[in-house]
Amino acid sequence: MKNWDIQYIKHLKAKCNILLKTASDKDKVNIKKTLWTLNEIEKYYYKKFNFSLPQKTNYYKILLDDLDSLKKFGYYMPIVRKANILGKKLNIKGETLARIKVSDAKLMEAADLFYQQFNGEFNLAYQMVQKGFEKRLRINKYRKVADGLTFSVYNTKLSFLEVQREQTIQDFLTINHEIAHSIVNYINKRSIWDVEKYPFIEVESLFFETLTNYQLLENEATSTEALYLAFDIIKDYLTETKLICLKANMYNDYSFKELIDKKKIKKYLKRKCKLENLKPKTILATKITDNFHYIVSYFTAIEIFLIYRQDPQKALESLIAITKASGKTEGEYLSYVNSLGINPGENFQQYLELLKRFDKKGEYLWQNTI
């Protein structure tokens, strides 16, 4: 297992503590936030894997969080609802990915080749980020589910990455996804901490992830598995849209006084979830905030990917513009993305048709096509 350099983390903390002694009051605020981030990373270092034990959920807190999210980011709901309508027309069956034998070194080599293909700022940022992999990249093996995590160190260009491997081609997507977060943090260190930009914080990572998947599709040796993976990803995001829309409808149907009556809500969900093939327990325990940004970012990333296939330079220019965008209000970020000629979800049908071309056996992984 490749791990972060704990001595390097402690060195950064010590440096922050020294700076605190002579810093101005204004600078102390930022330094303390940086130190807090490093403390969290140090705690995480001693965890064997990226997981936590199941915790009891507080329905009332989740309710308040959901209502706050819908109030703040409600104008993104048309994107989510459009995706939900799409989900009702598709019936994607899941496939189990085959295990592969690829060493961590080969995985890193593949990631390097992937990011070396780009010119301009993304490539330059990758070169700088790559130099820190020895100290700030952690790889775990043999998990049942591939996963990743990136810690951005507040007010710096530093980030710590973790990749949890499941020994399938998903690993190639996971590592490129996390590296993208690190690249974004290097280009715009404020991006991940910009609350108003929250719905778009996964755009770059999901774009590079989608492009990775597509290049695996084009490779004869991995094409079939990559097709399964592409549809699995779509299925996951469409399930999330279903969950959010169900909760949003519930909040519209009931007053706040009714919503805090958990028994009443359970009855409502028992009826609705049966129709949507979801579990009431899952709905009650899931915050809209945990899924919302993935949906908006994913459908934005797909639009940029479709542009990339026709005009790579234009796509990367739009992507870097989104990466550098800062200091806007919630609504202004969506307007800004639209001004770049990107309307999340608008051309998703094209992406589905593109995937169809790789289904050599003619055994489509979806039904009820649009």
How would you characterize this protein structure?
Strands 1-3-2 form a 3-stranded mixed β-sheet. It starts with 5 loop residues before the first helix and ends in a 14-residue tail after the last helix. It is globular and about 60 Å long. The chain has helices at residues 6-22, 25-45, 59-73, 77-89, 104-116, 121-130, 133-136, 170-187, 203-218, 223-253, 256-259, 262-276, 280-285, 289-310, 312-324, 330-339, 348-356; strands spanning 137-140, 147-152, 159-164. 64% of the residues lie in helices and 4% in strands. With 370 residues, the protein is mostly helical.
List the helices and strands and how they pair.
Blueprint: H1 6-22, H2 25-45, H3 59-73, H4 77-89, H5 104-116, H6 121-130, H7 133-136, E1 137-140, E2 147-152, E3 159-164, H8 170-187, H9 203-218, H10 223-253, H11 256-259, H12 262-276, H13 280-285, H14 289-310, H15 312-324, H16 330-339, H17 348-356
Parallel strand pairs: 1-3
Antiparallel strand pairs: 2-3
Helix pairs in contact: 1-2, 4-10, 5-8, 6-8, 8-9, 9-10, 9-14, 10-14, 14-15
Largest sheet: 3 strands, mixed
Amount of beta strand: under 5%
Q: Write down how many β-strands occur, each being a DSSP E stretch of 2 or more residues.
A: 3
Question: SS-based structural class?
Answer: mainly alpha
**CA-CA gap between termini:** 45 Å
User: What is the overall pLDDT average?
Assistant: 89
Q: Count of DSSP helices?
A: 17
Name the helicity range. Answer: 55-70%
Provide the gyration radius in Å.
21 Å
Biggest sheet: strand arrangement:
1-3-2
What is the H/E string? HHHHHHHEEEHHHHHHHHHH
Low-confidence segments, given as residue ranges, are 49-54
Shape: globular
